Amino acid sequence: MNDFIQLFQYTFFQNALYASLLISILSAIIGTYIVARKNVFISGGITHASFGGIGIATTWV
C-alpha cells in the first residue's frame, strides 16, 4: 500500500489525478445537460404531434 501512495509524490501522477477528477465532473455536467435537452426535444415533438391530431380532429367534427 505504501508503494501506491508513494506514486503520488510524482508530479505526473498528481496531474493525472487532477485531470481525471476534472473530466469526471465535467462529463457529469455535460451528460446531464444533454439528457435534459433530449427530454425537451421529445416533449416538443409530442406537443407538436398532439396539435396536429387536435387540428385534424376539429376539422372532421
From TrEMBL:
Pfam family, one: ABC-3
Record's keyword terms, sorted: Membrane, Transmembrane, Transmembrane helix, Transport
Spans through the membrane: 16-36
Membrane topology: Multi-pass membrane protein
Top-level taxon: Bacteria
Xref: InterPro entries: ABC_TroCD (IPR001626)
UniProt subcellular location: Cell membrane
Claim: Transport is one of the keywords in the record: yes
GO cellular component: ATP-binding cassette (ABC) transporter complex
Keyword Repressor: no
GO terms classed as biological process: response to zinc ion; transmembrane transport
Family according to the record: Belongs to the ABC-3 integral membrane protein family.
Protein name in the entry: Zinc ABC transporter, inner membrane permease protein ZnuB
